[in-house]
Structure formats: C-alpha cells, structure tokens
Predict the structure.
Amino acid sequence: MSRFVALLRGINVAGQGLILMDDLRMWFEQVQGISEVSTYMQSGNVLFSSDNVDEPKLITDIEDVLEKHLGYRVDVILRLYSDIKKIVEDNPLTTVKSEEKNRMYVTFLSGVPSFDVRGSLGVYSNDAEYARVLNREVYVYSNNYGKTCFSNTFIEKKLGLKATTRNWTTVNKLLDL
C-alpha cells in the first residue's frame, strides 16, 4: 500500500470553491481503493493510502468523484508521500536564509515541463522574486506572493501544465502528518 498526497487546485481560496474538509474526506473514501484519508488545512491537502499506484487513473477517479459532488471539475495534483520528502530535500533555493523561509513556495505541476520552456521563468526573476524549475515542481521565492508574477495562472501559461502552490511551511508540515 502506498501513501499519497493529493493537492487540489483552487479550493477555499478567497471565498471561492468552498469545500468542508469533512466532506472532502468522505468523498475521497468513495474512490475505489482509497483508505486512511486525512486532510491538512482548508486549502485542499489530502493524504491517503491506496493499493492502486496508477497515478493518472487515481487522479481521474478522484476528479470524477469530486465533480459528481461539486458539480464542477477540481484539478488534482498527486504526489507519493516519499516525493514530498524528496521535494524538501532537493530544494534548489539553498541561499534563502532560515528567517526568510516564509517567503518560499512550491508550485506542484501536473507533469514535467518540456525542456524548451523550463528556462522561460528565468527572465521574470529579480532580487525580490525568482523561480527554479526542478522535475515536476517550481520553487518560488517572493517578497510579496500576493503580488508575485509567479502565480499559478502565470506558471500554468508559461509551462503549459496544471499547477497548484503551497507555502514552504505547508509543504514541510505534510511530512509530519
């Protein structure tokens, strides 16, 4: 049995896509083969176990169940629990001081960006904010994420993939659950 983290895009953000976590847990439990469901925070972080390791099938099954209950499609980005540990360990933003870690974010992508677009974020980087692509993640540093150019929408447009972002504290907290 494998442990997964599902990261839902665009729920409970600025009063949009409001979903109760009790409902979310219940809906995940309706997906065949999913068990041991728990949530973290109100922003769509769901941990679960499954014998099914076919990630594309799991994503489709989860999105189908959510759409059935919500009436609209919610994008799901899936990672193995062990992937989260590696994402933290492989952090390329090693020059960020510990007191500035609250300015770090990880944007989880639905796939690996093609080689020809990986560098497309670099031209928007400066001293106040920058981004580094590594595998299926974009590591972002921003002095003011609310006004950053490295938003989900921007990253999705530039890299041609679905994306959802979590702050560095949340990413690390997922390891403790």
